[in-house]
């Protein structure tokens, strides 16, 4: 390996950029989503409803271009059937590992 | 392709040396060397011989003394003159010249044609891709929205919004996405992720948040860039919407949540190169996007550090 692997150049997001929520219209939902993640050990499959609600709040408050829930990956055939019992954290094969310099807030 | 190094060496001389039998590469090389030497030697001898025997050279006197006529003397000169004339007439022959000219024209035409084709290839390829879409995916915006009510809104927008047409692969193991944040030294901001890691399935759209707080006393604009590690997994990381590449302006003493909405392409599970990838790290870095002088910067940074 004489040359390092080529870094992927950053690509722009598919739907552009989120405008900032200066008036905190959807902050409460964001905090609820974060609480849900903490409760379910950070598995996002368990908190998809809250994510959908947050994005809908953004669309209502003109903070996001309106789009169907299907377009965003919700309400699809697979998502409603996500067996939440299977959506668990995998065994920590790397327990005790750490990222150097990462602050644990 | 080559099973042994010896075989590979063998094929090269065989290509260039015509009809040699199956011999060892070393022998061939030695033969070639010897052959080269012989040719050189014989060439030199020939030159020397010609010089010695020529009519005007110094050796001619010696040769006349010993009874043999040197080359280029009267007996041979007429023959040589004939040959010379014959050689002249060969190129004067009109039929031959015409043929030569036509060959020359053809080769020049073919060369220029090849150059022209390489220029024409660019638009031709574009046309071909639009017509057949071979080897890629070409969709129009109308097809993406499926003609739903959202289509009318999107038709007024100029960018192409694709359908996130992925089904989450719940049968696969979830991938751990770690979030890392960084703010440039010149930014009196506190920029942290609101969750340290999440576990997502390939194909599942996931939402994550970063939090930024402006500690300065004036509004500051910043631009974020991101990076995905490991590098090879970067092609599977698709961001639907985030806060990067656009200027974000924070008012003084303001704290804002910045969401990132993304998904990992489900083909991640099929790629054998990704089999060892269990962890993907997404790191965002905020840079300043407004221009201020060094003194202003120092003053701002000092105030910000006090406020923290």
UniProtKB/TrEMBL annotation, chain A:
Keywords in alphabetical order: Cytoplasm, Disulfide bond
Q: Is this entry keyworded Cell wall biogenesis/degradation?
A: no
Q: Which biological process, per GO, is one annotated for this protein?
A: mitochondrial respiratory chain complex IV assembly
Which GO cellular component does the record give, naming just one? mitochondrial intermembrane space
Location(s) in or outside the cell: Cytoplasm
* Key word Cytoplasm present: yes
Q: Which family does it belong to?
A: Belongs to the COX19 family.
Q: What is this protein called?
A: Cytochrome c oxidase assembly protein COX19
* Organism (species): Porphyridium purpureum
Task: Tell me the organism's taxonomic lineage.
Answer: Eukaryota, Rhodophyta, Bangiophyceae, Porphyridiales, Porphyridiaceae
UniProtKB/TrEMBL annotation, chain B:
Q: Which residues cross the membrane?
A: 103-122
Q: Where is the composition biased (Low complexity)?
A: 73-82
Identify the keywords attached in UniProt to this record, alphabetized: Membrane, Transmembrane, Transmembrane helix
GO cellular component annotations of the record: mitochondrial inner membrane
Family annotation (InterPro entries): CtaG/Cox11_dom_sf, Cyt_c_oxidase_assmbl_CtaG
Q: Where in the cell is it found?
A: Mitochondrion inner membrane
Q: Which SUPFAM superfamilies match?
A: Ctag/Cox11
The organism sits in which domain of life?
A: Eukaryota
How is the protein disposed in the membrane? Single-pass membrane protein
Q: Where is this region: Disordered?
A: 61-92
Q: What Gene3D superfamilies does the record point to?
A: Ctag/Cox11
Q: Which Pfam families match?
A: CtaG_Cox11
Q: Which GO terms describe its molecular function?
A: copper ion binding
Function summary: Exerts its effect at some terminal stage of cytochrome c oxidase synthesis, probably by being involved in the insertion of the copper B into subunit I.
Question: Which NCBIfam families does this one have?
Answer: PRK05089.1
The protein here is known as: Cytochrome c oxidase assembly protein COX11, mitochondrial
